[in-house]
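Chapter summary example.
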Amino acid sequence: MKWTNKGHELDQKADKLIEKFKIHKKIYIFGAGLLGADLKIELEYFGCFAGFIDNDVHKQKAGKDNWAVISLSEYLERKDSGIVVIAADEKNIPTISRQLEESGLHEGIDYYNGQEFQRKLFPVLATYYYDVSYTEISQISLTERCTLRCKKCAHACPDSDNIDSDLPFEVVRKSADSFFRVMDITKEFVLIGGEPLLYKQLADAVAYIGSRYRDKMIIFSITTNGTLLPSKEVLEQCRKYNVLFRISNYSAALPRLKERYSTLTGLLEEWDIQYSLGKPEINWFDYGFDYVERNDSEKELTAVFDACGTKCHEVRGNKYYFCVMARSVSDNMGLGVGGGDYLDLERLPKDNYKKILLEFNDGYSDKGYLEMCRRCNGAEALHYLIPPAEQIGG
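The structure predicted for these 394 residues follows.
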């Protein structure tokens, strides 16, 4: 989306949302499962979580995460009823929506779809109602080096010989300082690569960011491919600052990694460090960076960008990039594309910067698209399935 009224693009959306929210100032999550538990994290942080609603009588009896789980009928009987957000699998959303509509509730007024609410509406509420600059996820890419050489790496890491692969530590510090100077809270702040465990000053990076900004992160995490074991120094800092290890699971493509994952998770358990080992990845998406060449108009490129809506933002020094892949692929492949496609965190106006940050995270920019959109399949990548973690050279 192209900025036409910077700092005020979302005023009307905010007015409509806040009008309903101000009545009860509470949000119920319809769905006491994994998706609901994930959404609860940020609602609870802001003090606006009221409880779970679920049709499962067993969940109603057991509760969820020390919270009550009530039926829809019980919610409707409560005088303090708040907004309902559906957090359920896509296949179950139509049934729940119909159930809510038949109970006299209306979408966009009384209830919302969980993904839309979490990504598009809650940041508006945080900014306009709570006066808090907020984003769902942001990252620092510490290194473009990796222990694997995947043919369709989404960051083009095997091509990283084109650049200085490791981010200088002073830039890591500046990245964190620039970001958290203007960002009050992020649901998750991630140290990524490449493979971040290759970064020699990883323990220092965790210590620097954790000691200064841990209270501004609901989740502080490291994303790893699980091929390396963290050093004692890294483990000490991760335990101290409650860092979550997110381990990508490529065992379906590379069975040898199963044993490595077992060793890594055992080590993390020994150090009482949280981790999340994903399910074995069956497919990747081909973004087409190595062959796509669009000659689209500005209007068409904006449509490509708007349909994508990636949430993988990156801070690099004072530069805030909407798409970490766009930046890393251009650098690693030596394309020289989109060098100016970032928000300068040091040149934000003092009086309205929170709303500008909100709009940027929502997909607004001066051009309305990224230059790397010309080299990407965008949302259509979902239809280009490829084998995961296929290694160059077999």
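To summarize the output: Residues 114-128 form the longest helix (15 residues).
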